[in-house]
Write a structure and sequence with these properties.
alpha+beta; three-stranded mixed sheet; 5 helices; 3 strands; about 30% helix
Length: about 170
């Protein structure tokens, strides 16, 4: 899901588990993601959180600087999408949870790769995504947001340098 979302930005994404890396690994860009909680669907009853909507993921920052570290709160995400699932959705619950995790991660990657705490008007970069959007058949970046990422990751080369001997 992340690869699909990021494809429209021209950014290729590759995932590695920590145990797959050797000590000499190096990367041009690196984002560390922590999945917290249980990241699989179950058939337990839905417990409603009376405190209202809560964050499903977050990206760390320090002194206003966006850091390449994100956390996905799988328990909250699982509870959220269960509220809109019905019928055959439960047969493919882990697939839908994976889709939701991918979309939440794509949203967090927008912040990191775009070096912004801002949000888009619509699509994956929107400030708040509904549970229905997280498991819907399609959710992509708005064109302006995809272009922002493309420009941040692949800036246009500078124009020609002009030299002069004039004082």
């Amino acid at each position: 899901e992340v690869r699909t979302a990021m494809k429209q930005t021209g950014i290729a994404v590759d995932f590695k588990l920590r145990e797959e890396l050797d000590p000499d690994s190096s990367f041009e860009e690196l984002i560390v993601v922590q999945l917290k909680g249980r990241c699989e669907m179950d058939i337990s009853p839905i417990l409603f959180d009376e405190r209202g909507p809560s964050a499903l993921a977050f990206t760390h920052s320090s002194e206003g600087e966006i850091l390449p570290f994100s956390s996905v709160l799988c328990d909250r995400l699982r509870t959220s999408i269960r509220t809109v699932m019905g019928g055959d959705d439960f047969k493919r619950g882990n697939f839908l949870l994976g889709r939701a995790i991918g979309r939440v991660l794509s949203h967090e990657f927008f912040h990191i790769l775009g070096n912004t705490s801002g949000h888009g008007k619509d699509g994956i970069a929107k400030r708040s995504l509904t549970a229905g959007q997280l498991i819907s058949e399609q959710l992509r970046f708005e064109k302006a947001d995809a272009n922002l990422l493309r420009m941040r990751m692949h800036p246009a080369p500078p124009g020609p340098a002009i030299h002069t001997d004039l004082p």
